[in-house]
Design goal:
The protein is an alpha+beta fold. It contains 2 helices and 3 strands. The chain has a 3-stranded mixed beta sheet with strand order 1-2-3, covered by helices on one side.
């Protein structure tokens, strides 16, 4: 909810990307990560924003991109 509240208050904002870290080094998305991404995408569609990506980064210079993997 807070993400969209913030985005709605940014003038001319039409796109966004989300990111969070997995300090364990495992960049594979959990079920919770997948559910959150789905909810963010649905909220973005309803509010007419474009969600560019949700990225998971690790402490080992690795990442997982939902967009790159066709999961967005």
């Amino acid at each position: 909810k807070c993400i969209f509240k913030y985005l709605l208050n940014v003038p001319k904002c039409t796109t966004f990307a989300a990111a969070h870290n997995h300090p364990s080094g495992n960049t594979q998305p959990s079920d919770a990560d997948k559910l959150l991404t789905k909810k963010l995408k649905c909220g973005a569609d309803i509010l007419d924003f474009v969600m560019l990506d949700n990225i998971i980064v690790s402490g080992h210079d690795r990442y997982f991109s939902f967009a790159d993997n066709g999961d967005l």
